[in-house]
Amino acid sequence: MEFLRPTSWGEALAAKADAPGAVPIAGGTDVMVELNFDKHRPEALLDLNRVGELATWSEEEDGRLRVGAAVPYARIIGELGGRLPGLAMAARTVGSPQIRNRGTVGGNLGAASPAGDSHPPLLAADAEIEVESAARGTRMIPAGEFYTGVKRSALAPDELIRAFHVRPAEGPQQFSKIGTRNAMVIAVCSFGLALHPSDQRIGTGIGSAAPTPRRAFEAEEYAAGELDWAGRSPLDERVARRFGELAARAAAPIDDVRGTAEYRLHALSVMARRTLTWAWKDYLNGGATACA
Amino acid sequence: MERGETAVRAEIALRVNGEERRVVADTRTSLLDLLRERLGLTGSKKGCDHGQCGACTVLVDGRRVNACLALAVAHQGADVVTVEGLADGDEPHPLQRAFVENDAFQCGYCTPGQLCSAVGVLAEAARGWPSHVTADLAADGVELDEAEIRERMSGNICRCGAYPGIVAAIREAAGGGTAR
Ligand SMILES: Cc1cc2nc3c(=O)[nH]c(=O)nc-3n(C[C@H](O)[C@H](O)[C@H](O)COP(=O)(O)OP(=O)(O)OC[C@H]3O[C@@H](n4cnc5c(N)ncnc54)[C@H](O)[C@@H]3O)c2cc1C
Ligand code: FES
Ligand code: FES
């Protein structure tokens, strides 16, 4: 197995163009499982750990945060938890502390598993993924268009993920995940929610309950219209329940070893109802963020 | 690009427990296999090779990681500390002492990983990193109570179920007195 070790972003793109079959490795928490079990013998690995800029984040002029693909979860939680509370809440449920010290959002996007925990909060917060190739330059892909199938994404073979761009939370955000125990569980299903008070909108993201992570558009529109943004009156229990039903309706789950489709639909409606209830309560209390 | 590194075998230079080590190894070698099979440091254990048990936990540049999920060649120049490097000469690390005093193991298979992980826990808590169960996210340091320790050690599994002793030992080493 060849081991390519670019030291700059330009070199990384050139290497990927030369060898589109080369498998990028960031934290390695997905790639190494495959290597150790010999599921996959890549012709080459492309180590991104020497490309320093991938492990940095910055504030952009458009007001968004640009977070490098290889910033590990532990740093997202520690350094960006206040501004990206939904993503930080999801990050805190990934694997174990050891996995969170190495695993990255870029790797989660690269793997594009429907169960990846970054996806619901990225969808709910309208994140965009910055990808680039040596031949065609930079593309910005909205999270909603990034996931194209089970473990498949819009990333072309000669492209690499450079960063994701996302607005700091301007309202409460929530993330809820169902698994069989607290640590190291792949989500049976998960739900991310973000309130966007300035345009009186709700963002959602569903995980593990369809071939790809996806938004629950009908639920978003319904709740945005029913919620009393200006008057800040309490959430009507019926609205919360209906929101849950509509969120579940957006899913297309399967039966698998982790749970049945029916269970997932039920769990989703409960998670959607609860996260909306919590987030709205925070909104009424004037909190910008939930329990970041 | 360092073209010299593109062969199937590569020279890997690491600092392990304070000593510079150099080995030529297959580029697919995990850090765990390198430590155990090439450097003779068999303290770190291979429980699953999957990231799920924590028995292979070591400190890389001060952070705890699963050595089975670390590609050795991707860690050129890294500073690695294994359980063999925790003691100060003949003087056990305070956590090692606390593990012995609190019966924090039975068969001992998970212990090297538990110890390295616990070193990471103390460092992370001192830096004020919150966990899933931390209530006060604004505090400078984190009070390591039982719930915090259990959450923070959740990446280390003990088949013998020595958890009460492990929690007590970490509490003691963290300066919180014994839990029992
Ligand atoms: C024990 C265990 C528990 C886990 N628990 C969870 C969990 O709870 N939730 C969860 O979501 N995941 C979990 N995972 C999976 C994994 O940790 C995450 O998907 C993580 O985000 C992967 O990041 P990484 O940097 O380690 O990726 P890597 O393994 O380095 O890469 C993953 C994939 O992305 C590609 N890639 C990486 N970076 C780039 C880039 N910049 N551009 C293009 N492609 C790229 C790689 O080629 C590979 O296909 C777990 C894994 C283990 C071993
Ligand atoms: S051997 Fe590495 S986590 Fe189990
Ligand atoms: S002491 Fe036996 S596995 Fe922990």
UniProtKB/TrEMBL annotation, chain A:
Residues annotated as signal peptide: none
UniProt-listed SMART domains: CO_deh_flav_C
A GO term for molecular function: FAD binding
Q: Which controlled-vocabulary keywords does the entry list?
A: FAD, Flavoprotein, Oxidoreductase
- Pfam families registered for this protein in UniProt: CO_deh_flav_C, FAD_binding_5
Q: Which InterPro entries match?
A: CO_DH_flav_C (IPR005107), CO_DH_flav_C_dom_sf (IPR036683), Diverse_Substr_Oxidored (IPR051312), FAD-bd_PCMH (IPR016166), FAD-bd_PCMH-like_sf (IPR036318), FAD-bd_PCMH_sub1 (IPR016167), FAD-bd_PCMH_sub2 (IPR016169), Mopterin_DH_FAD-bd (IPR002346)
Which intervals hold domain FAD-binding PCMH-type? Answer: 1-171
Q: What is this protein called?
A: Xanthine dehydrogenase family protein subunit M
Automatic annotation (TrEMBL), chain B:
Pathway the protein contributes to: Alkaloid degradation; nicotine degradation
Q: Does the keyword Repeat apply?
A: no
**GO MF annotation list:** 2 iron, 2 sulfur cluster binding; metal ion binding; oxidoreductase activity, acting on the aldehyde or oxo group of donors
Where is the 2Fe-2S ferredoxin-type domain positioned along the sequence? Answer: 10-86
Pfam families, per database record: Fer2, Fer2_2
Q: Which InterPro entries match?
A: 2Fe-2S-bd (IPR002888), 2Fe-2S-bd_dom_sf (IPR036884), 2Fe-2S_ferredoxin-like_sf (IPR036010), 2Fe-2S_ferredoxin-type (IPR001041), 2Fe2S_fd_BS (IPR006058), Aldehyde_Oxdr_Iron-Sulfur (IPR052914), Beta-grasp_dom_sf (IPR012675)
CDD domains, sorted: fer2
| Keyword check for Acyltransferase | no
Name the chain's protein.
Answer: (2Fe-2S)-binding protein
Taxonomic path: Bacteria, Bacillati, Actinomycetota, Actinomycetes, Streptosporangiales
